[in-house]
Automatic annotation (TrEMBL), chain A:
It comes from Nitratidesulfovibrio oxamicus. The keyword Repeat does not apply. Keywords: Membrane, Transmembrane, Transmembrane helix. It is found in: Membrane. InterPro entries: ComplexI_Subunit1 (IPR052561), NADH_UbQ_OxRdtase_su1/FPO (IPR001694). Pfam families: NADHdh (PF00146). The chain crosses the membrane at residues 61-81, 86-105, 125-144, 156-173, 225-248, 260-281. It is a multi-pass membrane protein. Its main location: membrane. This is NADH-quinone oxidoreductase subunit H. The keyword Metal-binding does not apply.
């Protein structure tokens, strides 16, 4: 029961952390580009403003999809805090990803349609990597339960460095960072408007944004499992990882989906196999 | 679980009464499952006329389903009927074997197909050698044996298969109106459909492998007849392909029978499995026939490189595809592979089977991505799931076998449903192409929603298919042999499946009106009822998955490994490797879904906006588009990415077939 209450508190704090992260991200990115950047709390102002707007939609399926997306992302985070099954929380997160695509595909708008197709390809790129990372964790700990990771004596990073890089690929795609901001992007250089998010506005866009915060925190949470032995190590790992994400975002151009499939799956899976064999032998 | 035996001579009178009662009960139930469908088939064939058929088919599938439920209620049994109407069963089946092979030979002769003739002759020679030289006719072999695995299969065959036959009534009426036939060919159609059910029940209940072989060949013949039912050139070609591929599997089956009789001295599945458990038994003498049986299973389950027969089978009327893909035929293939799994557990053969299944899973999932033809997507997805089942059988731990049986159950329901949906859609809109189903909700609101339900139950939690996939992935991670390639293939394949399902569900819901409420569609009752029942079944049975697991799946896995696959309490599956909370998930996701639906309902026409088209969006005659060049209206059009250059059949099939043949060669060669 205590875990459940703690998990609920964690769940409630997640969007706050996610929003702050987005704020810091925007600020750091701006500095890297010699701009001043918005206030750290700007993402919250944006979402609050969006929530206050009157809904405008093309059809009802979009609304349903937006709610299912935020719900499933939240549920995945809850499962994480409950120290549940890694594979299960991944599948629950997939519900949201699928419905985001379903919502976009239900609108006959070229931008949303193309965005949805590309979102599916992005999923095709990151899903196998996440599954393989979880398999690696299960090889190291003997199970897919997060609780068993915390029972480990040594940090996972020491035995799974290459799988951590593979997870980094997945994180970059999930964060919609260059070079993988293919289906939707925060920047204005999009031929695709906002791709898979184009047809969402007002409160429903706010829901998707909150869902996105959940997803980002969840994946960072997964990264944190790689250094569970000390809080300092964990925070350091996350800060370095996120800083690397921002750096990559700013020094990379946006690439095409065939490039993404080839590179992410090619390099990512080779790294993963290598690491799996390593775990297998030891 | 009670166990009764047909040839016991009980001393105690009360016991004898109970046993007699149960044996008679068993007689009736096995008869109702295996022989009765044949009688019903004959009745439909000879009593022509719509009215009679509309009575015979529903009544007989109801009786078969009732018999299946009765058998399941009775629990596992072994049962050796000696004779039917005074004729020895062993002799009868031997005679029928040769009659069947002779009939197939005649068909091949009429087609002038040397390949099939050759394959038939090989089987005849093998059977002659087996029956007249190898077989010791003095030893008794228990004819039928049923455990939870066979009973699960009987339930699926009789209930899902029965619903598909029922759907066929409404479907075939419309189908034939479309074709303008002078004389209805429905009696022939339903003859083979019902016969198919009986043969499948026989196959999964048979303990004597030579009986199983007979039923195996009957399903080959039925599928040949049903695929070629419409008599078009394409139908004939595809039926012929199905026949030769399955006959090749038949040859492997006969070879396995000969080897087993020679090395094991028996064709009883139970005896072979029991003997194989002894240490030092897993040598080439046992593994070679096992490899042959697996090969036979692969052909029947349309694994690569034999995928083309199942893809070609969709020229047949939809109920045939639904039957072949969900509850019969292909499931016979995986049944055999799972049934024999203990005999090759812990060997290299098992690892080879796992790798082969995983390869089929990823290869056909990739092929499905390149397809816009809805039925072909379904076909490749079937083959992929069968590959996953075979991979589980190869992984061969109790959790993996549990995953395999769960996959069989939930796949049968969801895939049967999806085929019936596509059939109904095709009859209404005249196309089975996914692109033609854009905005289907406007035209067929109920069917569109049911199809989306079918798709969601195939791919997302908390539904049974996903639970099974979760079990499969987690057991793959604990596989002892060839784990890394296995896991990579399953992970990639699973991501590919998400891709092709999600986009199909999305386009069907296309709409441009918030709160759209299209007029409800008209559908024959025989079409609507199976759709509703199967959709309800796919969702309802998923909710009951903890019970399905404890009642059907867990006892089946107990036969394979001492270790319990999962403990289930309060709807939560758990073992050392992981935990899947079915009920809490259902509750939370269910509440969330209802909330999402209510929020969607609340948004009315006042919130309507047009899709964004760079600011120049426009509606002309109810069509949505934009103000294009020369101030002209351009209607929007969109299409999914099918990426033929990456995932097209022409691009992939050849290399997939080559790799598959190499894997098969390694599998067969590896046991020697």
């Amino acid at each position: 029961m205590l875990t459940f209450i703690a998990a609920l508190i964690g769940l409630a704090l997640t969007p706050v952390v996610g929003g702050l992260l987005a704020g810091v991200d925007r600020r750091v990115t701006a500095r890297l580009q010699s701009r001043f950047g918005p206030p750290i709390l700007q993402p919250f102002y944006d979402v609050l403003k969006l929530l206050g707007k009157a809904p405008m939609v093309v059809n009802s399926w979009q609304v349903m999809s937006a709610y299912i997306y935020v719900m499933s992302s939240a549920l995945a985070v809850l499962l994480f805090f409950m120290q549940g099954d890694l594979l299960l929380l991944f599948f629950v997160m997939t519900i949201g990803a699928v419905f985001q695509v379903v919502g976009a595909l239900s609108v006959p708008s070229p931008y949303a349609q193309v965005g949805a197709q590309r979102e599916l390809l992005q999923m095709l790129a990151y899903e196998p990597l996440i599954i393989v990372v979880f398999v690696g964790i299960s090889m190291a700990t003997g199970s897919f339960k997060i609780a068993d990771v915390y029972a480990m004596e040594k940090p996972l990073l020491l035995s799974m460095p290459f799988l951590f890089i593979a997870l980094g690929y997945a994180l970059t795609i999930k964060l919609r960072k260059s070079p993988f901001d293919i289906s939707a992007c925060h920047h204005a250089h999009q031929e695709l408007v906002r791709g898979v998010l184009t047809e969402y506005s007002g409160p429903h866009l706010a829901l998707l944004e909150i869902g996105h915060w959940f997803d980002v925190v969840l994946i960072l949470g997964l990264c944190s499992l790689f250094w569970h032995t000390s809080i300092v190590g964990m925070v350091a790992l996350l800060v370095v990882t996120y800083a690397a994400e921002i750096l990559i975002d700013n020094i990379c151009a946006r690439m095409t989906w065939p490039w993404m499939l080839k590179n992410v799956l090619g390099v990512g899976l080779v790294l993963s196999v290598f690491n799996l064999l390593w775990l297998y032998v030891s | 679980m009670q166990s009764v035996s047909g040839d016991v001579h009980p001393e105690v009178s009360r016991l004898s009464f109970v046993l007699c009662y149960e044996v008679r009960m068993l007689d009736t139930l096995v008869f109702g499952s295996v022989v009765f469908p044949l009688l019903a088939a004959l009745a439909v064939y000879f009593v022509r006329g719509d009215a009679a058929r509309n009575i015979i088919v529903p009544v007989s599938v109801a009786i078969t389903a009732a018999a299946a439920l009765g058998l399941a209620g009775l629990g596992s049994f072994s049962y050796s009927p000696q004779a039917i109407l005074g004729i020895s069963l062993n002799g009868l089946i031997t005679v029928l074997d040769f009659a069947l092979l002779g009939f197939i030979f005649l068909i091949a002769l009429r087609m002038g197909n040397l390949l099939i003739m050759g394959l038939t002759v090989l089987q005849v020679l093998g059977m002659v050698y087996l029956d007249f030289f190898l077989m010791d006719h003095g030893t008794q072999v228990t004819g039928f044996y049923a455990d939870s695995l066979s009973l699960t299969m009987v339930l699926i065959i009789s209930i899902v298969g029965g619903l598909i036959c029922f759907y066929g009534l409404g479907y075939m009426k419309e189908h034939e109106e479309h074709l303008h036939l002078a004389k209805s060919r429905q009696p022939r159609f339903f003859f083979f459909m019902l016969l198919f059910l009986g043969a499948m029940n026989g196959l999964v209940l048979a303990n004597n492998l030579s009986w199983m072989y007979f039923f195996w060949e009957v399903t080959t013949l039925c599928s040949f007849m049903l695929i070629g039912h419409d008599g078009t050139d394409e139908a004939k070609t595809n039926a012929t392909r199905a026949l030769w591929m399955n006959m090749a599997g038949g040859v492997a089956f006969v070879a396995a029978l000969m080897f087993l009789q020679k090395s094991m001295g028996t064709l009883s599945v139970q005896d072979i499995l029991a003997k194989s458990a002894a240490p030092g038994m897993k040598t080439a003498a046992l593994l070679l026939p096992m490899a042959f049986l697996c090969f036979a299973g692969f052909t029947k389950a349309a694994q690569v490189p034999f995928q083309s027969w199942l893809c070609g089978a969709m020229v047949a009327p939809t109920p045939v595809s639904a039957l072949l893909h969900s509850s019969t035929m292909v499931k016979a293939g995986v049944y055999l592979v799972i049934r024999m799994a203990p005999a090759y557990q812990g060997t290299m053969l098992s690892a080879a089977v796992a790798i082969f299944g995983a390869f089929t899973f990823i290869a056909t999932s990739a092929l499905a991505v390149g397809q816009s033809n809805g039925k072909k997507v379904l076909a490749y997805s079937t083959i992929a799931n069968l590959g996953l089942i075979i991979a589980c059988a190869g992984i061969n731990t109790s959790a993996a076998i549990a995953a395999a049986v769960m996959l069989i159950i939930f796949h049968a329901i969801s895939k049967g449903l999806l085929f019936l949906c596509v059939g109904a859609i095709e009859q209404k809109i005249g196309s089975r192409d996914i692109e033609a189903m854009r905005g289907l909700f406007k035209v067929m609101p109920r069917t569109a929603v049911i199809t989306v339900i079918g798709i969601v139950t195939m791919m997302l939690p908390p539904f049974g298919m996903l639970l099974a996939k979760w079990m499969a992935l987690e057991s793959a991670a604990t596989a002892t042999a060839a784990m890394p390639p296995l896991v990579i293939m399953l992970a990639l394949g699973s991501a590919l499946t998400v891709l092709f399902w999600a986009r199909w569900a999305g386009v069907m819901l296309g709409s441009t009106v918030p709160g759209e409420n299209p007029p409800s569609e008209h559908q024959p009752f025989t079409v609507r009822l199976p759709l509703l029942l199967l959709a309800g079944g796919a969702v309802g049975l998923s909710l009951l998955s903890p019970f399905v697991y404890s009642m059907l799946v867990a006892p089946a896995t107990a036969l394979y490994a001492k270790a319990t696959a999962y403990t289930v309490s309060m709807g939560v599956f758990e073992n050392n490797a992981g935990v899947f909370a079915v009920y809490p998930l259902f509750l939370l996701l269910g509440v969330g879904f209802v909330y999402a639906l209510r929020a969607a309902k609340k948004v009315g026409p006042e919130a309507a906006s047009l899709p964004y088209m760079g600011g120049s969006q426009k509606v002309v005659d109810g069509k949505i588009g934009f103000n294009g060049p020369m101030n002209g209206f351009v209607e929007t059009a969109a299409g999914n990415y099918y990426m033929e250059s990456l995932f097209g059949e022409s691009k992939l099939s050849k290399s997939i077939n080559v790799i598959a043949i190499v894997l098969l060669a390694v599998m067969l060669g590896g046991v020697l």
